Amino acid sequence: MVNHLYSLKEKDYNTLNVTVASSMTVDTIETLDKMKKDISLWLDSRHDVKVVFIFNELVELDSTGLGVIIKIYDNIKEKNGQMYYYGANERVESLFQVTTFDTFIKKITSL
Questions:
Q1: In which order are the strands placed within the sheet that holds 106-107?
Q2: pLDDT for the residue numbered 22
Q3: Is the pLDDT of residue 105 over 60?
Q4: Confidence of residue 86 (pLDDT cuts 50, 70, 90)
Q5: In whole numbers, what is the pLDDT of the chain averaged over residues?
Q6: What is the helix (H) or strand (E) element at residue 104, kind and residue range?
Q7: Cβ(49)–Cβ(16) under 8 Å?
Q8: Relative orientation angle of helices 29-43 and 63-78, to the nearest 10 degrees
């Protein structure tokens, strides 16, 4: 599924790459809710999943975006899955460290 803010690409049956562009903020909440629903639909019939957020193009992230990430993470954990991120800029990395997101969303260095 492709959207102007995100795209979902199934790498294999149990692995989903989620590319996020631009921002994950209160200004994009409708699109973020749609992304959350699209990921939930993908998760429906799967277990032991791996979801990788690709943040190469992510510029802005606020508490709304963090909340959406938490909800997606909870859905993934229900499926005995793992969540990773790749390519975050320094600002996003710093935010993940300050909020301790980096303790449950692991950084990967290659896709």
A1: 6-12, 15-24, 50-61, 82-86, 106-107
A2: 86
A3: yes
A4: very high
A5: 93
A6: none
A7: yes
A8: 10
Q: Which of 84, 74, 62, 65 is nearest to 16 (CA)?
A: 84
Phi-psi region of 22 (alpha: psi -120 to 50; beta: other; left: phi over 0): left
Burial letters 6-26, b for 16+ CB under 10 A, else e: bbbeeeeeebbbbbbbebbee
| Cβ-count burial 56-65 (b if 16+ within 10 Å, e if not) | eebeebeebb
Alpha-carbon gap, residue 19 to 4, rounded angstroms? 10
Q: What fold does the segment set 6-107 form as a domain?
A: Transcription Regulator spoIIAA (3.30.750)
SS3 111: coil
* Per-residue tokens: 88: 């975050």
Instruction: Please answer whether residues 32 and 24 qualify as being in contact, where contact means their C-beta atoms are separated by less than 8 angstroms.
Output: yes
Q: Is the pLDDT of residue 90 over 60?
A: yes
User: What pTM was estimated for this model as a whole?
Assistant: 0.91
> Residue ranges of the alpha helices (H) in 10-104?
29-43, 63-78, 90-98
